[in-house]
Write a structure and sequence with these properties.
The complex is a heterodimer of chains A (about 325) and B (about 575). Chain A is about 70% helix and about 5% strand. With about 325 residues, chain A is mainly α. Chain A folds into 2 domains: about 90 residues, no CATH class; about 220 residues, MetI-like (MetI-like fold, Orthogonal Bundle), CATH 1.10.3720.10. In chain A, a hairpin with a 4-residue loop joins strand 3 and strand 4. Chain A starts with a helix and ends in a 7-residue tail after the last helix. In chain A, about 40% of the residues are buried. The radius of gyration of chain B is 24 Å and the shape is globular. Chain B has 2 domains: about 200 residues, 3-Layer(aba) Sandwich (D-Maltodextrin-Binding Protein, domain 2), CATH 3.40.190.10; about 230 residues, Dipeptide-binding Protein, Domain 3 (Dipeptide-binding Protein, domain 3), CATH 3.10.105.10. Classes of the chains: A mainly alpha (about 325), B alpha+beta (about 575).
């Protein structure tokens, strides 16, 4: 197991390096190939030659592309210095870059915004797992009955309605009309857990509503398939209680695909729940990404992309390890 | 995203907006607001809720963060307005509604300048008792250093550079970070701590306006951190930075070293000012209407859903203003692209345009602004909103006249052209579509080319590119950097302002009469006499049919009724933020 994890970690690092190369290529090479100058994005309305040259130098665009990438990777390993005029700013390793537009270290910014995204993603994940998997099991066990139809109709609605619809609507009703909830927002858990939960409850529910629908449908389909397996019939024929058949035999088998999807979903969300954070104005990684894209802040776009990729790689690794725990038939090799 | 999915997404968004508009009714207005609204446009030309009551926290919101809090870099209109909280300048605009706000008044200076040497030397004396937030005295050297920073364009790009043009005088001053000469910028003298003298190469009557820009404010050299200065600029005004998180929030608290007796402009009523940046403009509107936000400092207007809700409800509408903000939205004709090298072809478009449709595309009479008949906005002295040489304000296309002009320009059956428009400006795209549709009625086939709006300076702002790609019509907008005819018109019509990149004289007007008038205005220190010259320039531009004006830009903005001292300062083209207070002290 240990060797397997080490091997996967090395593969993960290589994957991340490839991601940096591709992302770097897209954001630094494409403008060059299309004949646009990224430095102009930093100089505002005026196009003073010194300003353009200064921006080009600051961003490293005056150097060959290979050297630019080398400096980026070097920054990840040993850090970099950036010229501020009267002095220099040191960006310590792992230096994911420096936002020249907003004057912040990208890595530090992501670390400070990660708790927001993590609070949102983990809270919503708990809700959607409980509701989605629970609803899927009930639906599978009551197949064809009213409750099954009701759950599947709800799931269809959840999958169909986009977050910017449910988010805006729920805030309008529960916050601004009924005044049942405070305005959504983030405050640190350790500062006041109650305020933390109150501020996030609406984003959690909105996000969970979307994901729970998918999990309900997935659980139902997998459960129905499992329930038709021979070993389930055998278990019932042996006289096992229905609770044991469902809980110990059927559900365990159902969990494998759910774990796969859950790992990827949670990993993707930890890289930034773009729509939910934007709709509810939560200052997490997703909002950073939107802000960076809207202001063409290339170092931040690069950093957020790498951060998101890191979580996907990590989630994949955890899921693969968990397979062996959930399903003894899977052996890690 | 496929067309179908886009359609579904768009439908969902529209449905959400409609439901949002339907939800809430009037209840939200009573959650925290006890005051009744002062009336639609009550803050235009007069003060809403005049008060001297101090205390409380002003809750400002915006869907866009400052481009920079560094006075040398910030260029957004709302950022200049907010700079008044922490940046004082030698002269500034009085905190008054109406045209009174347009006439410069002394701020850090004890009086308006002594102008000598035929208009080439400006001498200012500073007030006594003026201090930075750390208690150190503000001297003339701090003001000189602040201006010198503008020259460090390699480190501090993005702000206005007009002062460089007036003060460099061939020195090629590189800014204070690279300069080795202890004398610094030679065109500025500081014989003592309270005197500063500017030597211009040639008279420039608008020079004091350049000194009213935040970049001309004082910066203490010891606290200058270069590019990072934007994170916590020193304060010479009534508030200082407590915190700033880019893209998230800014908090200002009282500057204990600001002495109100030295400041005739600012009231400094709230104890604290919060600026929250939101990614959801619709949510911001909800907060404004619910009274949990006081004002949107972007002042770009409420979103469609809130606009419907507000305009349908008289009690909500009473908390709104839609003043012209000093911008004109227009189409410019490239005189280097055929057939717009022919004045009659340009006039054909002027007459064929459906001005009401263009106004609707901009957001209608309230959300977009009144139809503009000419190219000088109402906040500029010399403007004449009744001057309408193409009978534009009546709103309808004049197809017969358009066809006559087409005959004259030798294109009786119309012609083909391209309308270039920014892809990130929804209202501009709609304007292009409205223009395209109206031109089709006289046989003018216009293709719309959408380009990345961030690259304006190299797409339509590059004359070679315009000619090469045949952009006959270019949709744009312009607001003056200072409220004078020179500030508004010079970048648009002065041939010496035609640049290889970043050009705003889009038609590439080269008119000797205009150049002669600009030479006269440079010498004219009497605003009334200068106004007559700007009026003449406006006539020349309109007679030449270089620009098709759409609207005097306006936006419907909501103010929380708990706000005091609310008025539109014409110099900023929006609410004067430094004057605001809160009536409930919370």
């Amino acid at each position: 197991m240990f060797r397997y994890i080490i091997r996967r970690l090395i593969a993960g690092v290589i994957t991340l390096l490839v991601v940096t190369l591709v992302t770097f290529g897209i954001f630094f090479m494409v403008p060059k190939l299309t004949g646009t100058d990224p430095a102009l994005l930093y100089t505002g309305k005026q196009t003073d030659k010194v300003a353009i040259e200064g921006a080009r130098k600051k961003m490293g665009l005056d150097k060959p592309v290979i050297e630019q990438y080398g400096l980026f990777v070097k920054g990840l390993v040993v850090g970099r210095d950036y010229d501020d005029g009267p002095d220099k700013t040191h960006c310590p390793a792992p230096c994911f870059g420096y936002s020249f537009k907003n004057q912040f270290n990208v890595w530090q910014r992501m670390l400070s915004d990660l708790p927001v995204t993590a609070s949102l993603a983990v809270g919503a994940a708990v809700i959607w797992l409980i509701l989605g998997v629970g609803a899927g099991i009930i639906s599978a066990l009551r197949k064809g009955r009213a409750i099954d139809r009701a759950v599947m109709t709800g799931a269809l609605a959840g999958v169909s309605l986009p977050i910017y619809f449910t988010g805006l609507l729920s805030a309008s009703i529960f916050v601004y009309t009924l005044n049942w909830l405070p305005s959504p927002g983030y405050s640190p858990f350790l500062q006041n857990p109650l305020t933390w939960a109150q501020g996030l409850i609406l984003p959690w529910i909105t996000l969970a509503f979307l994901f729970a629908a998918t999990y309900a449908r997935l659980t139902r389909a997998t459960m129905l398939e499992t329930l038709s397996e021979d070993y389930i019939r055998t278990a019932r024929a042996k006289g096992l209680r229905e609770r044991t058949v469902i809980g110990k035999h059927a559900l365990r088998s159902t969990l494998t695909p759910i774990t796969t999807v859950f790992g990827l979903d949670l990993g993707a969300l930890l890289g930034g729940a773009v729509l939910t954070e934007t709709v509810f104005n939560l200052n997490g990684l997703g909002k950073d990404a939107v802000l960076a894209i809207s202001t063409s802040d290339l170092p931040v776009i690069l950093g957020v992309t790498m951060f998101a990729a890191f979580f996907i790689v990590l989630a994949n690794l955890i899921v693969d390890v968990l397979y062996g725990v959930i399903d003894p038939r899977v052996r890690l090799a | 995203m496929t067309v179908k999915r886009r359609a579904i997404a768009a439908g969902a968004a529209v449905l959400a907006m409609a439901l949002l508009a339907a939800c809430g009714g009037n209840k939200a207005t009573t959650t925290t607001n006890s005051n009744t609204g002062a009336g639609f446009n009550a803050a235009v030309g007069k003060v809403v809720n005049p008060s001297t009551k101090k205390g409380g926290t002003l809750q400002m919101w915006s869907s866009q963060d400052a481009d920079s809090w560094d006075p040398a870099i910030g260029y957004y209109a709302f950022v200049w307005d907010l700079n008044q909280l922490y940046t004082r300048t030698l002269v500034t605009y009085p905190a008054q509604p109406g045209t009174a706000g347009l006439k410069l008044a002394p701020d850090l200076a004890s009086a308006m300048p002594d102008i000598t040497d035929g208009g080439k030397t400006y001498t200012f004396h500073l007030r006594s008792g003026i201090k930075f937030d750390d208690g150190t005295a503000i001297t003339s050297k701090d003001i000189k250093y602040g201006i010198e920073r503008i020259f460090a364009q390699d480190v501090l790009p993005g702000g206005p550079i007009y002062l460089m043009g007036q003060l460099d005088e061939g020195q090629n001053y590189p800014g204070p970070y690279k300069d080795k000469d202890p004398a610094g910028l030679k065109s500025i003298e500081t014989p003592d701590d309270s005197t500063i003298i500017f030597h211009l190469k040639a008279p420039y009557a608008d020079f004091p306006y350049l000194l009213a820009m935040p970049g001309a404010g004082p910066v203490p050299q010891a606290r200058d951190t270069g590019a990072k200065y934007a994170l916590k600029p020193a304060s010479s005004g009534p508030y200082m930075f407590q915190s700033y998180e880019p893209g998230k929030s800014t908090v200002w608290v009282r500057n204990p070293n600001w002495d109100p007796s030295t400041d005739p402009i600012r009231k400094a009523l709230p104890d604290k000012i919060n600026l929250t940046i939101t990614s959801n403009a619709d949510d911001l509107d909800s907060r404004l209407i619910a009274g949990t936000a006081d004002i949107d400092v972007g002042q770009t207007g409420v979103q469609s859903a809130a606009q419907i809700k507000v305009l349908q409800n008289p009690s909500l509408k009473a908390n709104t203003d839609a003043p012209p903000n000093g911008f004109i939205r227009y189409a410019a004709f490239a005189t280097t692209v055929a057939p717009f090298d022919n004045i009659d072809c340009r006039k054909a478009v002027m007459y064929a345009a459906d001005h009401t449709a263009l106004q609707t595309a901009r957001g209608g009479p309230i959300g977009g602004g009144p139809i503009a008949p000419n190219m000088l906005p109402p906040n500029i002295l010399g403007s004449d909103t009744k001057y309408d040489p193409y009978n534009i304000v009546q709103g309808k296309p004049q197809l017969d006249k358009a066809k006559e002009e087409l005959q004259k320009c030798g294109k009786p059956n119309g012609f083909s052209t391209t309308i270039a428009v920014r892809n990130n400006k929804d209202k501009e795209i709609k304007s292009a579509e409205a223009l395209q549709q109206s031109l089709a009625a006289v046989g003018i086939k216009a293709n719309i080319y959408q380009y990345d709006g961030k690259l304006l300076s190299t797409v339509i702002g590059a004359p070679d590119n315009v000619k090469k790609n045949g952009y006959g019509i270019m949709i744009a907008g312009w607001g003056a950097d200072w409220p004078s005819g020179t500030g508004y018109l010079q970048p648009l019509i002065d041939q010496t302002f035609i640049l290889k990149n970043g050009n705003y004289n889009l038609p590439e007007i080269k008119d000797p009469q205009i150049q002669s008038l600009f030479q006269q205005t440079a010498l004219e220190t009497d605003p009334t006499k200068a106004a007559a010259l700007y009026n003449q320039m406006n006539h020349i531009v309109m007679e030449g049919a270089y620009y098709l004006p759409f609207t005097y830009d306006a936006a419907l903005n909501y103010r929380n009724p708990r706000l005091t001292n609310v008025f539109v300062n014409q110099a900023w083209g929006m609410i004067d933020f430094q004057a605001l207070g809160v009536s409930d002290g919370k």
